[in-house]
Amino acid sequence: MSTERDTGRGTEHDTGDGAVLRAVGLTMAYEQRVVGRDLSVDVPSGEFTAVIGPNACGKSTLLRMLSRLSRPAAGTVYLDGRDIHRMRARDLARRLGLLPQSAITPPGISVFDLVRRGRYPHQSVLSRWSAEDERSVDRALAATGMTELADRDVDELSGGQRQRAWVAMALAQESPVLLLDEPTTFLDVSHQLALMELFAELHRSGGRTVVAVLHDINHAARYAGHLVVMSAGRVVAEGPPAQVLTAPLLSEVFGVDAVIIEDPLHGGPLVVTAYRGRDSATASPERTATA
């Protein structure tokens, strides 16, 4: 049972169920258009949560509201039991980092200078750039394979390299909760897998709570321990991939015929899909599911 109380610092929300980030009764609106009503979702602490669903179902809008980038028309988002809209910006940034879907790069900025911006929440007006700040940036550059490009202008990089630079900035922030909106956009298969392994390791070894909006269902099934499935602005299923990913659900949400088999490399569920159309009877199943 959850309760609320006023502590003088703002409303706190007691859940007692291990949710570090919680949305309660959200009405999500985007550019004056309501995309979801009465939406509630729990993000388990220390878990890798993947949010999946068809295009325009509200995944990115939900992530923006979980990060305080957008305010819901109704409802509340709680971080560590506190209403995020009543938290100081610096306090929130120390606890929660965000990699948005369409990050705008300041002109003429180097990769190193972009990544070092991730350290701003840990600094004050009087503090100076520290050895720990330097180490955090170096670790983030190394983890994303960007060390050799640190002196390059971000504008000179390929789309995939720019994406990795932004990921490095989010990692340098070293917040215990990390939100990622389609983090593998523009990346080739090798770099997609490298980043997914990195995000999974952050929660396995570092104890971070990671929430990622993903298009690739099999990436979500392989790396996430908790899935949130959305459709038309609603959460239609939550839980472990093996329980959530079923042929009926994939048919209902994505409009595809699917067979769920055991992943021969990782042991979890592997989704094999076939396009449902006039020629669906002769369509060839695909070993990748992106939706």
From TrEMBL:
Gene3D superfamilies: P-loop containing nucleotide triphosphate hydrolases. The keyword Transport applies. It is a peripheral membrane protein. It is found in: Cell membrane. InterPro entries: AAA+_ATPase, ABC_transporter-like_ATP-bd, ABC_transporter-like_CS, P-loop_NTPase, Siderophore_ABC-ATPase. GO terms for molecular function: ATP binding. Keywords: ATP-binding, Cell membrane, Ion transport, Iron, Iron transport, Membrane, Nucleotide-binding, Transport. Residues 21-257 form the ABC transporter domain. This is ABC transporter ATP-binding protein. It comes from Pseudonocardia nematodicida.
